[in-house]
Amino acid sequence: MRVRKLSLTLAAAAAVAAAGMVVAQDQEPIQPIAPPAQINLGLVELGKKLYFDPRLSKSGFISCNSCHNLSMGGTDNIPTSIGDKWQQGPINAPTVLNSSLNVAQFWDGRAADLKEQAGGPIANPGEMAFSHTLAIDMLQSIPAYQREFKQNFGKDKIDIDQVTLAIAEFEKTLVTPNSRFDQWLLGRTDALTAQELAGYKLFKESGCIACHNGPAVGGNAFHKMGVVQPYKATSAAEGRSAVTGQEIDRFTFKVPTLRNVELTYPYFHDGAANTLTEAVDVMGRLQLGKHFTPDENAKIVAFLKTLTGDQPAFQLPMLPPSSDATPRPNPFK
Amino acid sequence: MRVRKLSLTLAAAAAVAAAGMVVAQDQEPIQPIAPPAQINLGLVELGKKLYFDPRLSKSGFISCNSCHNLSMGGTDNIPTSIGDKWQQGPINAPTVLNSSLNVAQFWDGRAADLKEQAGGPIANPGEMAFSHTLAIDMLQSIPAYQREFKQNFGKDKIDIDQVTLAIAEFEKTLVTPNSRFDQWLLGRTDALTAQELAGYKLFKESGCIACHNGPAVGGNAFHKMGVVQPYKATSAAEGRSAVTGQEIDRFTFKVPTLRNVELTYPYFHDGAANTLTEAVDVMGRLQLGKHFTPDENAKIVAFLKTLTGDQPAFQLPMLPPSSDATPRPNPFK
Asked: Which of B54, B78, B332 comes nearest A88 by C-beta?
């Protein structure tokens, strides 16, 4: 028994040595995703309903989940989203998964946190095309919502702060722990293949890690898109300068999280890259001045696919029915 | 103990007598919804994914669940549905709940069963605007779908029959047993209030029951819309005559189920009635030549709300990600 244990340890050490890694996974520039803590479950249940409720849009057809679809990595998997009356959105919908880890929300960071973000699309004429006042009128007309808001907030009147707070609380639960990469970080040395480990080594040594680091493997800083070579975007979005007014921030975007990146195609703020292979190639050339060989590219892609974690698991929520007093949406007016 | 039991029985009998009912609930023209039987769970899981997968549409945005939303009574709660590029649908989306009990599918019964129905919207240019060939190409390009189809059908090639069979099998599970009305039918005499029982009595005595009967309280026959007075539809749909070519079937539609009718607003094939009160009033006048008083109307509405059953409860499905070979939808082309 003792011999067997020893040989396993030696084998693990050999595998680690072969991949050129040290075992000190707690020294890595990427940290495991932590399960959510300090969560108010009453608010989560309310926020979950609101997240799935298309009555928060003018048409009665578009919910948060339409563009941040929790069956599809928290995205819509199309280059730019579809808004009210099929308007084309200006930018790729970022994943809602692990968005609580972001330094700020939206690609340009114009919302400080999830609560501030949640109010945006509801009132954006190109997205849900509603207004906060109309959204509150709708909710206030539905007895089961009235009761659930009152239970959570202790007030008779629903307001937009309650709505966005509940949605944000639900979104805080949308973290994806337990990816194979996290299992490896936490000491399960056989969780990654040699190719995946080699990809991680390349990811670090090539400089990808300079922007994509921390628990979300991104999401924690703003960087210019097109450092070594300019990026020819198919979108007119100008990035962080739209928020700061500073020319130096032009074409600077929040670094996207690479968690669940296997699920969140297409890539970049304009959704122009369809595959991870393409995204890694473009990132290498434009941000790092590196031309990855097909073999190097495949290794990095293999590593990136180890970042897919446990997806949020919950029952499809049932929405309380409208009352006779609820204004009825008509999407064709 | 014996005395108490006796007094309860007397109280129940008195309540029943007050509502003018007899206890022989197994003689009623409405039968309880039975839980689904002979279900293939492997097919259900596959069909559930397909039901939620917007990649079955040209845009990558519209799934079965978009218009038959299982968070909202299996409908979209708008007068007529939104199709590809925001096209206005010609008719109100009928609920998918308990649709396995329908004599045929669609308002005009043009599909014999759920399997035949499921292929329709995918290829309808005004709805999902895809084609069966493109849908199969998409599915075949996704390894996890390939495996799941092979596990269920034992073949290497996916075909449209497999797709529609799986969706239909999932839809067979979407029944809603255990409504308060069913509890009453099954002998729980206190499951309904006196007002609800009075509403049921009116529903039967006024003649509503002539069309709305059986386990689904409808769904089992075609009848003309506008028997006593003509119905002025906001839709151009001509009903069953479009299928049979018979003038006598003009403006004849499948009688909708009244199960979960509290959730499936707006009402009628054109979605023109926003509330149950309005629907009961119109039905009384046009189909039966009856003007229900506000009190009678309220009683019938109270009865109708007892038909809301247990909604299908399951985890939001996770869709397998596209591969590099999967054609990418672009909804704006």
From this structure: B332
